[in-house]
Amino acid sequence: MRYFEQPKKRKKKIKQIVVHCSASDFGDKDKIDEWHKNRGFKSCGYHFVILNGNVSSNSYDKAKDGVVEYGRNWWENGAHVRGHNKNTIGICLIGLPKKIHSLPFGVFTIKQLRSLFCLLYEAIRFFELSPNDIVGHNEIVNYDNDPYNDKLCPGFNVEFIRKVFKYMPGIYFRRHCG
Ligand SMILES: [Zn+2]
Fold first, then answer.
1. Distance between Cα 155 and ligand 1 center (Å)
2. What pLDDT sits at residue 176?
3. Model-level pTM greater than 0.85?
């Protein structure tokens, strides 16, 4: 275990993992912390943020591409989907999709996707979930009065990810995820 090795502070049941995008072409956990505080949240509302190398609007650091940063502790409620923050984990990919891509590669980097799959693989085992428990923000009920909850996020059809977990043998993940 790599991402979820912290002891369980409470017996909290995680039922779903929700995949998001930042709707920005740059950023990191600290930037999101700032953006979310401006929106009135206590801190970054996601549990994990997966970087694309563009930490600020005018810098690129190859070493940051695919890096997973921690937001809130997984046992704390996130602030990422209104009405669904109690038993979910929120993962945010830095990226700015303009439309729903049939594959996520249009906006997210290969390294981001690799990190996402490794994180999800571990989450599925740690929380005893099935691939069907991985959902996109755009698949969860929308609230018309929430301007931040649009149907675009995360910019691709997360069914793609569920299929990978249904059909890809576990050995692939064990080999490629440290
Ligand atoms: Zn979202």
1. 9
2. 87
3. yes
